[in-house]
RNA polymerase sigma-70 factor (ECF subfamily)
Amino acid sequence: MRSVINDISPGRLHAIELCLAERDSLRRYVKSLVGWDAFAVEDVVQETLLRAWQQAETLDWESRPIRMWLFRVARNLVVDQHRRAQRTVPSGLSQADFETTISAPDPADEITDRRVLVDALRRLSPAHREVVIRVHLCGQPGEDVAMALDVPIGTVKSRTHTAVRALRADLLRRGWGEAAA
């Protein structure tokens, strides 16, 4: 071990001392960039210190603070890793596999649609509203609705037809043409 240290030039030995003094602050800085992944942090720190070791003869260690150089190299390494991760495509998949993916509807749109529908239903008469809710929202057959409300099946059909037309007209008036059609 002593012979290895004796073979190191005084410039490189001074560089090692300066880098080791900055190692903890460099590790904290890299952790702030990549998060709590200890392996990723160590990889970046080690690669940064290796590059400092490789550039030891060409860097100006006296007139410039080395910390800024180390932080810049570490930041560039993190950016490079991030770019590489963004470019990778899992094996066995192609671009066409991603194009056919069906996206889920936005929950905010569903809430807005539901709110508009509830407001439109409130503007119907109670008899029409009950028939539409039972037939279209609950999926009950017309005959069952007629028996539950104690009205003829023709009345259920008429109320359903009238209520759907009124809902459609109300939604069109409010600018919800696609939803009403």
User: Anything to note?
Assistant: The longest helix spans residues 10-34.
